[in-house]
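Per-record layout

source: Corynebacterium mucifaciens
name: 8-oxo-dGTP pyrophosphatase MutT (NUDIX family)
length: 232
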Amino acid sequence: MDAQLRPDRAPAWLKPLVDAIDGGGGAIPRRLLSPRVRQKGGADQAAVLILFAGDPRATALPEDARVLITHRTPHMRSHSGQMAFPGGHIDAADGGPVGAALREAWEETGLDPAGVIPLAVLDSATTGGSNRRVRPVVAYAPEPGNVHPASEEETDAVFFIPVRELVDPVNRAMLGMQGWSGPAFWAGEYLVWGFTGVLMSVVLQLGGWAVPWDERPGDLRAALARSANRER
């Protein structure tokens, strides 16, 4: 049996996001990705954890609101050098995508599953490259502790990005190549784009935190060349 969702335990500042997902917003990533990647049906194959942390007493977006992110090592066979939410393949022992997302986050970042409150799931979406059906899981950790690259074969950087930096127009871009473009974010010298960029953009919008930004398409290859991603 999969780990239980507990939307009732969301802090007040995350409730709009949870309500928007349950109200149909969870289908948005699949729709945004469909022009680029044929969306498959069937069972979930992988899961990712979109983990928020921040003041549990706040009623509006707190100053310390942040999201967990990882940088995949450049020698990985798939998605090498990309920024990603923790996650991976759903094993039978996981019970489902929520359990898989919690386990993968623990294996990759040292995040203790006991301190994580799963809140909601978005609709599954098929990613480019690996062509897997992935279930995004939104969760909250009041005290996430110290995260780190717990599996150095998979990740060489693990950190939280402040939500206020993510919504800053200076750190946002619409980047693409070969006729496709999608939302991207600068996290210091790293560039968050692709499937992760789409998910990040959607949760910020559904949470009611996004502000207007320059959505004119730019060159993804040029942005990657000046990033610290070292993607192949």
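summary: Residues 7-162 form a domain with the Nucleoside Triphosphate Pyrophosphohydrolase fold (CATH 3.90.79.10). Residues 29 and 199 are 6 Å apart (CA to CA).
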